[in-house]
Amino acid sequence: MNGQFRDTPHSTASSASQQAHVAGDSSSQEKAAPTNSFLPQDDRSVTSAVVTTAAATPQAIPDNLVPDEEEEEADEVDAASNLAVGPPRRALPSELYTRIAQVGEGTYGQVFKAKSERTNVLVALKKIRMEAEKDGFPITAMREIKLLQILKHQNVVRLHEIMTARGSVYMVFEYMEHDLNGVLNHPKVHFTPAHLKSLASQLLEGLGYLHHKAVLHRDLKGSNVLLNNAGLLKLADFGLARLYAKGRTGDYTNRVVTLWYRPPELLLGATQYGAEVDMWGAGCIFLELFNRRPIFQGTDEISQLQVISDLVGPLTEERWKGMESLPWWELVRPHEPQETVQDAAEAQETQDQQHSRRRLSLFETTLTPGALKLAEALLTLDPRKRVSAAEALQMDYFVKEKPKARLPSSVLSSLKGEWHELESKRARQKGRA
């Protein structure tokens, strides 16, 4: 399947802020090479299946997520059209895409907002970085393509096709106007408790689906949680994701997950893990929804463990049996003076009391009792006791506590511009200038 691509002149950008970020020459067009020609022979059928998926599965809105009742009548009409059940609009195969603006950048490459010229559908073009690859196509991109072929859920970003242009390889995704980092850093965004519950529910619904499919995301963070103006949340960036062995022990790398969202077992060198590593990240994001900034901001593995213990309590064998047998425990274990068993018990009791008061002083004004219990369950030190996504969705915060979850469509659709992590960084830099 062939695709075509060209840059757009500045005048086609959708807003003044986006026009400043447009790069490239509008005068050239190229017909792309066959999309599966850059893959090993064994993988061509996999990518072909991704590319030739002409009709996406209808994206029904979950029953527990309803549009915001506070919207104005005109907004309700727009939201209703955005939330209509049915196949999402998508670009056709062999499309010609006009690039509008850059909306993301990382070690993987760059992400651009683009529009298909035949259908006018907005897409995200993820340019895969090839410069440092000595052995052909990057394994992270290959893994992401294979996994996205089998993942079809309303809370997982949809891959439309793969294309090549000017020697570069692009993954073509559905377009989402915002990511969680960009939105939470926006001073005019104020989510209601019902909106926050909706976002938390959608995050856990997406994770529950991934784990049901035996997929570990392994890179949950705000910039990988996408939002659109209809209030829908979708998990994205599966470059570190992988299938895992459900029901039996697997041996995987511990060099995954961004530091601030990395669970304590990986910080201590564990290589045998499962879905619980994603649930820790979900707990970090859950608190971030209320706090509007990352909760655990360490500078390295040792300081990260320290800020974790400052909030959720000390790392002790009593709280996490088997912790001291993890590979890197000796590198980070605290050095304490000799003390009697009674002294240790009294000191532990005092420390727990102090920790309880510190935790309540931090979150009792922002979290309901149900939300606090959910956070504690997601951020349990012992991974074997950490709740699953399915269990979390059955906790009181979602089932019993009011208000009911409502899609934050009124807040997101009223934002001026589109807010991803890249835009929020540029806005902060401009403010400091």
Automatic annotation (TrEMBL):
All residue ranges annotated as the Protein kinase domain in the record: 97-398
Segments of skewed composition (Low complexity): 46-57
Compositional bias per record (Polar residues), positions renumbered to this chain: 25-39
GO molecular function: ATP binding; cyclin binding; RNA polymerase II CTD heptapeptide repeat kinase activity
Region: Disordered, residue numbers: 1-88
One Pfam family of this chain: Pkinase
Record's compositionally biased regions (Acidic residues): 66-78
EC number(s) given by UniProt: 2.7.11.23
Keywords: ATP-binding, Kinase, Nucleotide-binding, Serine/threonine-protein kinase, Transferase
This protein's GO CC annotations: cyclin/CDK positive transcription elongation factor complex
Catalytic reactions of this protein: [DNA-directed RNA polymerase] + ATP = phospho-[DNA-directed RNA polymerase] + ADP + H(+)
Entries under InterPro entries matching the protein: CDK, Kinase-like_dom_sf, Prot_kinase_dom, Protein_kinase_ATP_BS, Ser/Thr_kinase_AS
Annotated GO biological process: positive regulation of transcription elongation by RNA polymerase II
Binding site for ATP: 126
PANTHER family to which the protein is assigned, alphabetical: CELL DIVISION PROTEIN KINASE, CYCLIN-DEPENDENT KINASE 12
Family, similarity comment: Belongs to the protein kinase superfamily. CMGC Ser/Thr protein kinase family. CDC2/CDKX subfamily.
Name of the protein in its database record: [RNA-polymerase]-subunit kinase
Source species of the chain: Pseudomicrostroma glucosiphilum
